[in-house]
Amino acid sequence: MIELEMITKDPIYQVKDANCITLGKRAIKGKPYSYEDESEFWWNMFISEHSTLRTVLFRIVDTNMRNDIMSQVLRATKGHPQPICQSHRPDWNHGEPRKPSNETYGLFEHIHTAESFMALCRQRLCFSTMRETRDKVLQVLRAMNNSELPFFNVLAKCCVPQCVYRLGCCDRKNCHHINSFIKLSDTKDYSNIRNRYNEYWDYYEDIFVQGE
């Protein structure tokens, strides 16, 4: 089970205030945003990837993550996410010996900014990644897509594999996934980042909504 929680209170204000500080002033709290306006705000922020996004923190808790998948998620360290994972020390587990990592499950929490989570997804949504790890990331994205918060809804759409982000594969072991996407998608304006991301998840709608 995936649990999502926004740690930062009033995240739009925090980002706007940080943006204003770079200009030598402070933001003023205004009226609450509509769902559409808040979504538009996050689309602009996530695509621009301004450093002020780091003022917003959220947490993901997985109540049953396999340890070998946990290791792969832990190794995705760009943007400095903060992980917390369940220990399986025998002296903490009634003396039960350790099982192989692919047979051990436990609680896992990671605290992210949008920047660090998008970086993780670029790596772990790659089709060269271990299938179970990729499925776990997709499980988190589906939880975000089903959230009531525009922040998570839009963030899910902005999380794409590295090849879609760069519009080309940078891995020596090219799986040619980007070629399949370009061949089958309808859009021709790949320079429009938002259109490209939306088109990608429209192309993989069944996976995004229901899973493989």
- Looking at the structure, what is the overall shape? globular
Number of strands: 4
Strand order in the largest sheet: 1-2-4-3
List the helices and strands in order: EHHEHEEHHHHHHH
Number of domains: 1
The biggest sheet amounts to:
4 strands, antiparallel
Q: What is the level-2 CATH architecture name?
A: 2-Layer Sandwich
Question: How far apart lie the N and C ends?
Answer: 17 Å
| Rg value | 19 Å
Mean pLDDT: 90
- Poorly predicted ranges: none
Measured by DSSP, the beta-strand proportion falls in: 5-15%
Which terms summarize this structure?
12% strand; single chain; four-stranded antiparallel sheet; 4 strands; alpha+beta; Gyrase A, domain 2; 212 residues
